[in-house]
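Posted in: Structural Biology > Protein-Ligand Complexes

Title: Requesting predicted complex, glutamine in pocket

I'd be grateful if someone could produce the 3D structure tokens for the following input. Sequence and ligand are given below.
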Amino acid sequence: MPKIRKQKYIFVVGGVMSGVGKGITASSIGKILQFTGYKVSAVKIDPYVNVDAGTMNPTEHGETFVLEDGYETDQDMGNYERFLNTSLCRESYMTTGSIYQKVIRDERALKYKGKTVSVVPHVPMAVVEQIKKAATKEEAEITIVEIGGTVGEYENILFLESARMMKRMHPDDVAFVLVSYLPVPNMLGEMKTKPTQLALRRLQESGIFPDIVVGRSPHEMDDRRKRKIATSSMLYTDDIISGPNLKSIYDIPNFFLTEKLDKKLLRKLHLRPKNNKQAQKNKSAWQSFVRKTKKHTNKVKIGIVGKYFGTGNFILSDAYVSVIEALKFSAAHTGIKVDIDWLQAQNYEGKNGKRNCAALKKYDGILVPGGFGKSGIEGKINVIEYVRKNKIPFFGICLGMQMASVEFARNVLNFDKAHSTESDQKTPYPVIDILPEQKKRLTKRDYGGSMRLGAHDAILKEDTLARKIYRSDSISERHRHRYELILGEHENAFEEKGFIISGASPDGQLPEIIELDTKIHPFFIGVQFHPELKARPLVPHPLFSAFLKASLSLKKL
Ligand code: GLN
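-- Reply #1 --
Done. Output follows.
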């Protein structure tokens, strides 16, 4: 591996409360440093004990973001990949569980040579080692390390200790940013700094003295408040940065430039801006993308039929964040504004299910995303039947593609009770079935990191929609699934009715893309993989762009 002359690190920690956009702030910091000409990468640390994010409930935890190498990580990793326009490696993500697992494995392998293995320093040292390994593998000159959780809580103490140890080892190469919350209580109408002052104290108790404080708030911070925070710490007013809510998260790097955060951070790291040609190009490409997000001439209404929207009266779209962002990128590049409605799959099943489908007429396109388990499945199938018959543009992702195949088997080929064995183990027509090697894993209750994961190649068939969209005969996309479309002896019957397998694994064994003949339906495509994971602001995904264009051109006026 090539050696980077000097690796620098910026630790980003949170104060006051979680959920204030620490990940987006950290990604934006990475972006503005990229603009100065440095190679920037990111590491995300989650304090929970789960070894990775693959086994977590999407309603509770949001999307699982799968990396190229198949590692199942937190959705924040998606933000880093999208902002930095890079693919990260598995070393870029860690949890309390994964770190302890590593330390225990090393102990069992006698790597500590008989020494007593202690929580401190051995656990934080394992964290430090992994951060350095990630930086080296990514060939990063600057690595942003986001520590999940908030200062003062029990869970992330060992990670803060790792950050402190790194500063002690490399005093000139490590900087700290505290991202804190500044409330504006209704009854006062004034921005309050006290919670941030207390967070600063808690951070200092851990032996960490921040170099920069970013104050997240609905509004911009004035000088008076900047001064208050500065005087309660060892910082200058200049080191206190405003982080107001903006209409688009992709505008945040630009705002930070007006606060000169790029120059300030480089100074703390003893670096000078490189300002090379590549950096200039990168910056103007980003600015032009941000401009495009604000300019649209046309509009389409898209319904997303999902099942992880949270509970009660609150609709949370966190489980589908990459799908939403992928739509936004294609929207910006095609000049089409996307209006998204969240549709609960469960509302389209049962007694009134089919009747409720009639209301889908108002959508210019319907997207059915991925998912697991039985809930909402019949609703998804009913929706797909409606959009197929009514020629509404359809885009199915993973479970969405699987259910499109089930719907076709049931309603076009009259394979009564056709299904996926994930939902009905006794179905007479298991058009979607588990792969033999996956079956063995499930019998052993081996659920962690054991699906078909990460990047796999596919070959596209000539004269198909897929081939036209990708403008290529071979592709690579990221996967996360246990079940597969297996048509076997029925393949010809499907084909005769216009159901085409337009993409498959290089050995021809695993279908990757299905579509309906354009003579039957103007735009009906389903993919076994997750194209949303590779969509980037500067590189929109062709499938999402094609879906929006089809929705616009078939729009009912
Ligand atoms: N549950 C399905 C499977 O495991 C689909 C997975 C998905 O949509 N990510 O194959």
